[in-house]
Amino acid sequence: MIDDCPEPNVKIDAGLPTVLVAAIALIDVDGRVLIAQRPEGKAMAGLWEFPGGKVEEGELPEAALIRECKEELDIDITAACLAPFAFASHSYEKFHLLMPLYLCRKWEGLVRGMEGQAFRWVKIRDLGEYPMPPADDPLVAMLRDFL
Ligand SMILES: Nc1nc2c([nH]c(=O)n2[C@@H]2O[C@H](COP(=O)(O)OP(=O)(O)OP(=O)(O)O)[C@@H](O)[C@H]2O)c(=O)[nH]1
Ligand SMILES: [Mg+2]
Hints:
Belongs to the Nudix hydrolase family. Its EC number is 3.6.1.55. This protein is α+β, with helices and mostly antiparallel strands. The chain has a single domain (26-146), classed as Nucleoside Triphosphate Pyrophosphohydrolase. It is 16% helix and 28% strand. It has helices at 61-73, 137-146; strands at residues 18-26, 33-37, 48-49, 52-54, 83-91, 96-104, 119-122. Strands 4-1-6-5 form a four-stranded mixed β-sheet, sandwiched between helices. The chain has a three-stranded antiparallel β-sheet with strand order 3-2-7, with no helix packed on it. Strand 5 and strand 6 (96-104) form a beta hairpin. The termini are far apart. The model has no long low-confidence stretch (mean pLDDT 96). Bound molecules: 8-OXO-guanosine-5'-triphosphate and magnesium ion (MG). Magnesium ion binds at residues 52-53, 68, 72.
């Protein structure tokens, strides 16, 4: 029955604008994933997230990630090393988030929190100890199954 489908966090008739945000799960040689803490002053400050950010007008998601990885983490990645993995589709109060998550195992440089944000390399089974935005819950579950 179609009515048996679980309730998604999608406000179909709310007239929300869709915001495209590209996110990246950097995975190190030990299989740990990088998460960063949202800095003070930003929405959802203190929560942990996958690095990334809003895709600008006319920009590809991959290009946004190359840009954001440099801006936020001071590392260089290439589109060739980005593997599309899954996406989140989640209505917040003011906008609907559409967020593709890419996996990446190769990059150049040492991760540094360029915006003063804390970051951690976390074993996938320990990710639950870090509060993340609600949109990320299904992604974390999929990562846990995959890695
Ligand atoms: N980067 C990132 N954003 C996420 C995640 N989960 C999630 O709900 N978001 C939401 O996506 C939105 C945009 O992300 P962002 O704040 O990183 O965008 P940005 O880097 O372009 O920042 P800016 O707008 O301050 O320039 C925020 O509302 C953020 O809360 C996640 O795992 N990673
Ligand atoms: Mg960001």
